[in-house]
Write a structure and sequence with these properties.
By secondary structure, the chain is an alpha/beta fold. The chain has helices at about 10-25, 35-45, 60-70, 80-90, 105-125, 160-170, 175-185, 195-205, and strands at about 5, 25-30, 50, 75-80, 95-100, 130-135, 140, 145-150, 150-155, 175, 215-220, 225. The chain folds into two domains: about 5-125, Rossmann fold (3-Layer(aba) Sandwich), CATH 3.40.50; about 130-225, Arc Repressor Mutant, subunit A, CATH 1.10.10. The two termini are about 35 Å apart. It binds calcium ion.
């Protein structure tokens, strides 16, 4: 039976969520404050976390960050404010989904099921580990050639996708524009390394929260680019 931890201080909401999840066949535990929630999330084995943002003790931002240091378990974050959801996305904490209160319990159960199924596929697919690259809020599915940023799908051109996935699968390695041009573009094609700069700019506009302070693709001045992990 799949085991879910609800970290939620409003006990009536937590109990409502628990009842619906239990009716759907899940085993559910409730942690009523952030300190206990974080401790249990790190020490015990759960299949999914539903994490409220505003909590006594440790807040949801910090809990999500700490979970992601060691676990890939799906995290659904819950907040009463739409602005908080934007903030969570911006921080790239690696949450898998976001729900704004109030939400229908049915909607939450549907999302829980979807994320458990997705995670199950991910860990049992037997596909090579690098078919899907997940780094903080960024997910690159190399097989399907699709990209998501904090759960939202973004459209990439062929070359943008090739360049992003090449950099992401070779993290912490600085490549010059010349190297990137020769790896991604056809060697025969008449091109300009400025093409690389233009593509990096377009990729950043899609994946970065603040393109002036990129958290994924760093510019190494005078040398080239490096994907940061
Ligand atoms: Ca709360």
């Amino acid at each position: 039976m799949k085991k879910i931890l609800l970290i939620e201080d409003e006990i009536s909401i937590a109990e409502l969520e628990r009842d619906y999840l239990e009716l759907s066949g899940f085993e559910v535990e409730i942690a009523g404050d952030g300190t206990v929630g974080l401790e249990r999330a790190l020490k015990e084995d759960f299949d999914l976390f539903v994490l409220d943002l505003m909590l006594p003790g440790v807040d949801g931002f910090e809990i999500c960050r700490r979970i992601r240091e060691t676990k890939n378990t799906p995290v659904i974050m819950v907040s009463a404010k739409k602005e908080d959801i934007d903030k969570i996305r911006g921080l790239g904490l690696g949450a898998d989904d976001y729900i704004t209160k109030p939400f229908s319990p049915g909607e939450m159960v549907a999302r829980v099921k979807a994320h458990l199924a997705r995670y199950e596929r991910l860990i049992s697919s037997g596909a090579p580990a690098n078919d899907v690259i997940e780094i903080r809020g960024l997910k690159i599915d190399k097989t399907a050639r699709r990209v998501w940023v904090n759960g939202e799908e973004k459209n990439f051109t062929t070359k943008e996708f090739d360049l992003l996935s090449f950099l992401a699968q070779n993290p912490n390695h600085v490549y010059t524009k010349e190297e990137l041009f020769s790896k991604i573009w056809d060697m025969e094609s008449i091109g300009d390394i400025a093409t690389v700069t233009v593509h990096i700019k377009k990729i950043r506009e899609k994946i970065e929260f603040n393109t002036a302070k990129p958290q994924y693709i760093e510019t190494i001045w005078g040398v080239g680019y490096r994907f940061k992990v």
